[in-house]
Amino acid sequence: MDDNNHFLYFFMAMGASIRGFRGSMRHVVAVDGSFLKGKYLGTLFVVVCHDGQNQIYHLAFGVGDSENDASWTWFLTKLRSAMGEVTNLVFVSNRHESIGKAVQTVFPEAYHGACMYHVAGNMRNKFGDDEMMFKLYSTAVKAYLVSEFNIVMIDIWAIKDGKVGKHLQEIGYHGWAHAHFNGKRYNMMTTNIAKSMNANLKDAQKFPITTLADHLRGILQEWFNERRNTTSSWNSTLTKWAEEKVHKNQNRDLRMSVSSINHYALQVHEADLYHMVDLNAKSCMCKMFDLDQFPCVHATVACRIRNTSVYIMCSKFYTANAIVLAYVEPIWPIGNKSEWSVPEEVQNRVVLPPIRQVVSGRHKINRIPSQGEERIVKKQSLWWDMLQSPNLQESN
Description:
Layout: E1 10-13, H1 15-24, E2 28-35, E3 43-50, E4 56-64, H2 69-83, E5 90-93, H3 97-106, E6 111-114, H4 116-127, H5 131-142, H6 146-157, H7 163-171, H8 173-176, H9 192-200, H10 209-231, H11 240-252, E7 257-260, E8 265-270, E9 273-278, E10 283-284, H12 288-292, H13 297-305, H14 320-326, H15 344-347, H16 381-387
Parallel strand pairs: 2-5, 5-6
Antiparallel strand pairs: 1-4, 2-3, 3-4, 7-8, 8-9, 9-10
Helix pairs in contact: 1-14, 2-3, 5-6, 5-16, 11-13
């Protein structure tokens, strides 16, 4: 509340979700904000990540007056309090200036990356629909090696008299390019899962905040129960999603030749390229093994040659056991209000409605871009199709 007891901010996180994230998830989270549509309006904040099955895993949500420096900083401060210290934490968001400031202030040790689709949308608005531009940008985003990235950027700098290259350089390669990112983003290159969570709450955004909170709690109760029941019958080492990735790599590795360096190090020949794999260090020259913590096709063929299980080369975050632990705790309903045990200090607390500036005209239902962010026009068929790739698509 503010100094006059008017509602200001709200934060909620389920202990079961937080504990599941800390022990069983890749430490990459997507954050996003969207309009509330109730009487007092405001903004809904969500924080989500991917579980080992690449499904949406909800961490926390909150409500604030708008997307500004104060509200995002307050929300992320509460998130840090709930999560505790998380090593190698990565945030992925749009290029909202207030999010960047809040992450830097509250999580100075964390890494922060930009959503590739937001960057592409800005490019479209600045430079129009250019098929080659989006193909090259998509290739640059996906590149794991700096050398591969640099080759693509030469072609990008040749587009529109260098304006596209300059635009991407000014954003900062470290923010949107996989090859230059300092942390581990795994396959989280967009904020799609956060937007999908907002879409699930589209109708609920009209509810009063207390009703909205319990509605979301009910969604998590259902998700946890369904996924707990589903994963309890699995007898595989990895999640179904990760198993499919392993099988795809195994089908590809039959076309590659291998020469040994020592017991752990091997050189894998693919087309006209050579890749050195070190099974002991869980590393490959292509960098996919290193950054995704999942054996690439070159590591897969090395495992076959050395008669080593490819499963032990996978991060624990991809295992079936990890996803079982992620949903092991139930989400409980709040019960009948008559049975609540409410401290007297809470009962006596007066919370007045939030102060809202009355604006003439119809309420806006679309998010307003901030400084550093361009409005993305809904006509997106060309640039969106250009960016779709099996390596970057996210399953929700």
